[in-house]
Amino acid sequence: MLDLLAQTGLNAVYAASYISLVAVGLVLIFGVMGVINFAHGELFMAGAYAIVALYAGLNVPFFLAVAVGLLFVGCLGLLMERALFRPLKDNPLGGLVASIGFLMILQALAVMGFGVRMVHIPPVTQEVIAFSDKVRLPVARLYVIIAAIVLLSALWYFLKRTRFGWALRASAQDPEAAALQGISITQTARIAMFIGAGLAGIAGALTAPLVSVNPHMGHSVIVTAFIVIIVGGVGSLEGAIVASVAYALVHTFVTTFWDGVLADIVGLSLMLVVLIVKPTGLFGSADRA
Amino acid sequence: MPKFLIWVAVLAALIALPHGLSFSQQEILVFLTINVLLVASYRLLTLTGEWSLAHVVIMGVGAYSSALLTKKLGVYVPVSMLLGGVVAALIAVLLSFPLFRMKGFYFLIGSFAAGEIIRLLWKRFRDPFGGAKGIKGIDPMPDFSIGFYQFDFFEPTSYYYFAGVIVAFCLWILWRIEKSPVGLTFHAVHWQDKLAQASGVNVRAYRTLAFAIASGFAGISGALLAHYVGTINPNAFDIDLMVFVLTWAIVGGTATFYGPILGCVVLTVLNEIVLRELGLEQMRPLVYGAIMILSILFLPNGLESIVQKLTKRRAAKSAPERSPAE
User: Fold this and answer.
1) Which residues contact A252 (CB under 8 A, 6 or more apart)?
2) CA-nearest residue of chain B to A265?
3) Between B219 and B250, whose confidence is greater?
4) pLDDT at residue B303 above 90?
5) In this predicted complex, what is the ipTM?
6) CB nearest B247 (choices: A97, A234, A262)
7) Measured between alpha carbons, how far is residue B77 from residues A45, A194, B74 in Å?
8) Contact B288 A230 (CB under 8 A)
9) Taking the first listed entry, what is the main subcellular location of this protein, grouped into a coarse class (chain A) (predicted)?
10) B17-20 long-range contacts, Cβ below 8 Å, gap at least 24?
């Protein structure tokens, strides 16, 4: 029993890692651009297909492929910023629809390029860290956990300790005042979009060998990310991380001890309860709603 | 008089329409008719300024209720359809208690969560909802005759006429509601909620009323769907269809009554008929997505703004002609 608890705990840490990478990117984009990026799950999917094309297709070394995937998805983010979100700056519903359109295009491209069926990716490493007979952590999952810790710490440092990060937070807080202080809103939007998309891309790339890669894999990812950013409070990076961990724990445990559908129901109910008790999320403030 | 003639011509065209189409296109026409009611009821909800993501699940509530009422209790089909709408409205009233504590983005996501919970409950509980496979063998609408026309509901054309009459009637009611003092209050709740509240309008009650009415009609559209296809499952009412409803409304424009309907018709015809005929089967979502992006970039006020421009230009043209006579 203790083994099962420990193993489920490890699984939850892994789930929390990739969920928080996706959710933090989504929060960053919403904070700076004020737009809900519905295509965020598909950016995750694009990252996974970068691995399919480069690592499984062209035999590029795995970590090089991950780096290229990160850059590629980051550039997709820049494209979205320039082509969709900047022209639709004053039209939040428009940004929503445009991102849905972009999502459909990315899905169709994945279907056309790689087929509808899931793709098999050769495992990166078969190594497993065994804590005991029944408590094991595959090293491939450890990569995801390490990436989440390193990248999110780096992001935290970037946001709180550098001038760029300071400008970014300023324009998230009050775009007009930030612009009056000489901060280029376009520039900060570009940076936020690149980082946000890149984080989703790297999460997709690193988890690609561990999950079934298919054109519609972004769907469950975006639903989870929405739950997490709502529970954490939209616009709060710390909240998104805390909520990722909490959601992953609850979801993994309910899945292990009961079943997956019930876990989804519990997760959604939890979010509804948070919204009823505190309609701005655990860490949110009212002004961004 | 010419306005009356236009309506007669439209009616005649709608009656003649299915006879020029292939069988599969006739089926699409039936779905389109049902979706017109869905998107028109959605507009009533957006009048109060809230964008719900639960609307398609509410439609599913109507479908499941009507299907279960006929299957388990043997309720006569047209009656069960009406009851399906009533159940959907009641569920909406229940949902309004938690949901209307939220606004804006939070309401959007909160409504999504509430809808998804309902949908997952259908999936989880095999009794009575049938689990992931849903409900099969739903009683079809019984055939009947109105003298000069024999309704045979295995024919899409017959069901198109039947659904068309019901949808037209529902649209008329929706239109009357919008033009009534209640409908004007909905507008006020959206654009001037503080002022409305200060003038003694119970904002919360009106938001709930709009939500319940919109949900009732969505439920009827769901029941129409259930008794046509004969089988429903949780995945038929998932977020994909909701995204379509949302884009129909936004691409069509929500400032007028006909905007969302226009969006629904144009995008459906484009997606299901034009792109299919062009043989772009695999590229369909790609082209559809591109059209969505282009229309939101270049037509931010929706397709209805084109219509408004055209009618305005015609009015402007006819005005100087009339002026010398005056």
Assistant:
1) A8, A11, A12, A15, A263
2) B117
3) B219
4) no
5) 0.79
6) A97
7) 44, 55, 8
8) no
9) membrane
10) B18/B156, B18/B157, B18/B160, B19/B157
Q: With an 8 Å Cβ cutoff, is A238 touching chain B?
A: no
Radius of gyration for chain B, computed over Cα atoms and rounded to the nearest angstrom: 21
User: Containing H/E element for B144?
Assistant: strand B144-145
Contacts 24+ apart (CB under 8 A), A268-271: A268/A227, A268/B113, A268/B116, A268/B117, A268/B120, A269/B113, A269/B117, A270/A231, A271/A227, A271/A230, A271/A231, A271/B109, A271/B110, A271/B113
Coil vs helix vs strand at A59: coil
Percent of chain B with pLDDT strictly greater than 70: 95
B262-288 pLDDT, tens digit per residue, is 888 888 888 877 777 777 777 778 888
What pLDDT, in 10s, does the model give residues B218-233? Answer: 999 999 888 888 888 8
Q: Which amino acid is at A24?
A: V
Domain definitions of chain A by residue range? 2-117+124-217
Q: Is the pLDDT of residue B45 over 50?
A: yes
Distance CA A158, CA A147 (A): 16
pLDDT value at position B204?
A: 79
> What is the model's pLDDT at position A201?
92
Break chain B into its structural domains and give their ranges: 21-237, 238-318
Q: How far is CA B188 from the centre of its chain?
A: 23
pLDDT at residue B322 is higher than 60: no
Residue B193 in this model has a pLDDT that exceeds 80: no
Contact call for A101 and B106, based on CB within 8 A: no
Report, as ranges of residue numbers, the positions in chain A whose pLDDT lies below 70: 281-282, 284-289
Q: Give the pLDDT confidence score for residue B321 in this predicted structure.
A: 47
Instruction: Report chain B residues whose CB lies below 8 A from the CB of A265.
Output: 117, 120-121, 124
DSSP B86-126: HHHHHHHHHHHHHHTT--HHHHHHHHHHHHHHHHHHHHH-H
- Minimal CA–CA distance to A20: which of A179, A212, A155? A155
pLDDT of residue A71: 92
Reply yes or no: is the peptide bond before residue B128 cis, omega within 30 of 0.
yes
- C-alpha closest to that of B30 among B143, B165, B197, B200: B165
Chain A, residues 190-219, CB within 8 A of chain B, namely: 219
Nearest CA in chain B to A216: B240
A99 burial via Cβ count (<10 Å: 0-12, 13-18, 19+): buried
A104/B286 Cβ within 8 A? yes
Question: How would residue B1 be classed by pLDDT, with cut points 50, 70 and 90?
Answer: low
Q: Chain A within 8 Å of B292 (Cβ-Cβ)? A: yes
Question: Which pLDDT score, from 0 to 100, does residue B158 have?
Answer: 83
From CA A22, how far away is CA B198, in angstroms rounded? 43
Name the nearest CA neighbour of B48 among B185, B174, B190. Answer: B190
Structure tokens at B71: 């299957």
The enclosing H or E element of B150 equals strand B150-151
pLDDT band at B318 (very low <50, low <70, confident <90, very high): low
8 Å CB contact between B224 and B37: yes
Minimal Cβ distance to B290: which of A101, A234, A265: A101
What does the pLDDT read at residue A85? 85
